[in-house]
Automatic annotation (TrEMBL):
Gene giving rise to this polypeptide: ATP2B2
Pfam families, per database record: ATP_Ca_trans_C, Cation_ATPase, Cation_ATPase_C, Cation_ATPase_N, E1-E2_ATPase, Hydrolase_3
Protein name as annotated: Calcium-transporting ATPase
Organism, scientific name: Meleagris gallopavo
GO MF annotation terms: ATP binding; ATP hydrolysis activity; calmodulin binding; metal ion binding; P-type calcium transporter activity; PDZ domain binding
SUPFAM superfamilies found in the cross-reference section: Calcium ATPase, transduction domain A, Calcium ATPase, transmembrane domain M, HAD-like, Metal cation-transporting ATPase, ATP-binding domain N
Described function: Catalyzes the hydrolysis of ATP coupled with the transport of calcium.
Amino acid sequence: MTNSDFYSKNQRNEANHAGEFGCTLQELRSLMELRGTEAVVKIKETYGETEGLCRHLKTSPTEGLAGTAADLEKRKLIFGKNFIPPKKPKTFIQLVWEALQDVTLIILEIAAIISLGLSFYQPPGEGNEGCGTATGGAEDEGEAEAGWIEGAAILLSVICVVLVTAFNDWSKEKQFRGLQSRIEQEQKFTVVRGGQVIQIPVAEIVVGDIAQVKYGDLLPADGIFIQGNDLKIDESSLTGESDQVRKSVDKDPMLLSGTHVMEGSGRMLVTAVGVNSQTGIIFTLLGAGGEEEEKKDKKGRFLNTSKQQDGAAAMEMQPLKSAEGGEGDDKDKKKSNMHKKEKSVLQGKLTKLAVQIGKAGLVMSAITVIILVLYFAIDTFVVKKKQWLPECTPVYVQYFVKFFIIGVTVLVVAVPEGLPLAVTISLAYSVKKMMKDNNLVRHLDACETMGNATAICSDKTGTLTTNRMTVVQAYIGDVHYKEIPDPDSVPAKTLELLVNAIAINSAYTTKILPPEKEGGLPRQVGNKTECGLLGFVLDLKQDYEPVRNLIPEEKLYKVYTFNSVRKSMSTVIKMPDGSFRMYSKGASEIVLKKCSRILNAAGEPRIFRPRDRDEMVKKVIEPMACDGLRTICVAFRDFNSSPEPDWDNENDILSDLTCICVVGIEDPVRPEVPEAIRKCQRAGITVRMVTGDNINTARAIAIKCGIIHPGEDFLCLEGKEFNRRIRNEKGEIEQERIDKIWPKLRVLARSSPTDKHTLVKGIIDSTQVEQRQVVAVTGDGTNDGPALKKADVGFAMGIAGTDVAKEASDIILTDDNFSSIVKAVMWGRNVYDSISKFLQFQLTVNIVAVIVAFTGACITQDSPLKAVQMLWVNLIMDTFASLALATEPPTEALLLRKPYGRNKPLISRTMMKNILGHAVYQLTLIFTLLFVGEKMFKIDSGRNAPLHSPPSEHYTIIFNTFVMMQLFNEINARKIHGERNVFDGIFRNPIFCTIVLGTFAIQIVIVQFGGKPFSCSPLQLDQWMWCVFIGLGELVWGQVIATIPTSRLKFLKEAGRLTEKEEVPEEELNEDVEEIDHAERELRRGQILWFRGLNRIQTQIEVVNTFKSGTSFQGALRRQSSVTSQTQDVTNISSPSHVSLSNALSSPTTTLHSPILSCYISLHYPDTGIWITLCTVDALHHSSQVNVNLLLEQ
């Protein structure tokens, strides 16, 4: 059903049922198209406040829908389901058609059809002796009739190849859709039904639901904001505006599907779902166009086909930008180089290799055809001096067609069309298996890139640790308790304040529930740090529920939610006497700086001076942090009722606090992590911890995990220090500075998401090591998006991760566990090795088959391996071998070697040795059989047989031996690093065993019963025994080859190497597109204008000119500040006689409210007597505001 059918059906339903609800689908749709105050006015006029709208939709703002099945069904019928019909998958027929587009297959089809046509054409000169060697030989009528069989057999085998390819594509597509739907089913959203807060799949959301939105959510439907605090939304996916939009009930209550919640929390009334939501409407408009854009949007990776399944769940609505005007043109330019990530390493190497092999094959097949034709022509017309008679033409043409078919067959065997197949099978198989290892792969090639990873930047909380927070130490009333204190020893006043501060100043969705199993640990729901604090309240034999019931969420006066800049959370409540009280909690060193009092042993506030604070940091906080605890400070402040404080002036509000207590929260390291990290280090992967935690805590955990070992030379930095070291005087990041730091950096603490992005980008762009670093990053927060996108492989947390993080990632860790990343590395390396195994096998067959066909054709006028036989060999080699070798399960041994890196060749020396070694063995035997086989087996020779002669035993033995050798060589190909035991772990791979035995069985059938179509004549048992015996020789020969030391064979070339040169242009192309992603935009917004040397001087020149011409220079400055183009004309301007460049007067630091004047450049223009000094004022975060000081000296 197309979107439009879906839509019209809904409209019909709507007409029938409009009476049941107070508003129709159409009304709601038009309401959702309004923004800001317009929408507020419209809601007031039409429904009288949001409560009125809730009544119209028969729902309650606090209790939600009743949730009865009948009611939900009715809503789905009238207002539609929250589901956007996906694009139809390709049908099997379409896939077959695509497989038929293969050039080699087309050539074969043409050859086969010509061959068929000619075999049915009986020329008049058939019996004519004059037509060369056309007749003669043992040919009876029946045989002549069978001439069509070869053409038919070729066509049949082409059909086989096509069906197999199409089936593979189809199952791949199906797997991928399954994967997608699994990602979607896992996407749940929190709604209130019947007064209970429950999580339901996104597709189950209906109009009238009350949904709870919180930081990091991706909104699954359109709705109206009915209550909440400090909610900020990133609507860039719909509007292209990167600024966050603040939502409030009275100013802008419209929440749109597909947008991201960047801060705050609240409740919304769902008003439009599925195709009727804003995102759905756009999708309907875009139709297929949207999907095309989507393709380009997804990092140029494998298309995430059913991306659109769950309404808004995964909308990256980039295409909309062009609607804003101005962006449309460069959109097209960008499309051409929209592949954000360069081709994956493996694909790059494979493409190159396939092209090289293809060229060689083409040359060989051309030579084969030319030689055959020349030999025939010379033999017939020169040596035997025959005339070309008109009646003989068809006979000759038939010969030429035969030669052509042989040539094409050589080409077919030479071109490894199985390569892409092997890669696909290997990746698809790995992806399926990785699901069991808790890796949900969203982009196929991320799996293979992971095998080359050289660095992993991991979060701490939840990835390296269990994310089960418990308070284990506390500092209350001047006493440092090393374990949970007895409630009686804490002053009653302090205890009451503490319970209120924790219960009220945390998300009400965070709860501690009774354990699922008897004797288990209580379940923690919601934010884990808050769970730890609530657990502390319970440990103090208190209860937080009564406090929350007394002050429900609606009564909270103002909430400052936690974000990565504030690093604290505060909640204001109105006291019964009209005054206000604010509770705060946050990172201890940050909150303590804002405290001016602290509760003493009696529960009374006493003065808390900076020196008391320093002492407390030394005696309480550092010892806690060194035990690997997170320290959280809980504080409060009272405000008078009049005048009411200015709540928006955050800096004044969050000061002058009174500290209630400091607690140390333990988040134990996951037991399996140290071992996993040790494996990574052994495998040549550096693990770095990037965390928002205190540096002492981070260091303690890093030591426990084994990221750092005491006595090693490493760096642990805080975000501030990191930024100081990597930026120059102007506040720009310099790659050379990063290069000095990253190789030794192991822990980055108190870091912001921007720091994480900077570090990842710095490591990836670094040129100081000869291999480009391949970086994996884990992230869970909304703000980790840029870093996850920038990394080669982004891992998002399946449990703790926000939707935004999952959207930006390549792999989702369904158990949030670091050791699953190690599994991903293993699978990635395994994919690479599987491809190498397949190549080693395939190339041996290629070399042998091509040489046999080529030499055979040149010497005996006829390829010993017939076209159909070659196609069968091709099938074994390509399809079956890729299945067998690409499905080898990974072993721990893969983690004992260093990553291969980008410029290690696909085919190593050892593999080259194996390929050539086995080729020599096979060729020797085949040529022996070809030229003296008939004497050995005492049979008729099959050489120089006439055109339609019956199949000979001689050539059948050659074909059979050839296949046997391939089968046993397939076992050899299982090892590529020169291991001796090729049977090692063979039974762990049932697919391999099945395929080898299956091929063997089919081979028996072909030889014994294949007859004319397969050009086979049945063999006796002893002949079979010889064939198998020669095949078994492969295994023995494999051992012989393994004995030759590779180091001696210097002359062997490697193949399939990616050279640096070829990568650079690609990367540079990508840089342009990549550069301006959001994080970058944030970093560069202020600097882009002023940190461009040319512009700087142009500014001077503009101002001088203005002065000369006497026009208002205010205008010039205003005009200049908007100039970012570097294409201005810098001619005919008097150049300054004196230019002095002065360094910044002091390096920009980030102390609050202390703008620093940095003067960069002074120019003196003698003809006007003007000195100009350009200065920038660096306020907080270097948001370079610009003052141009014009120092006029007359």
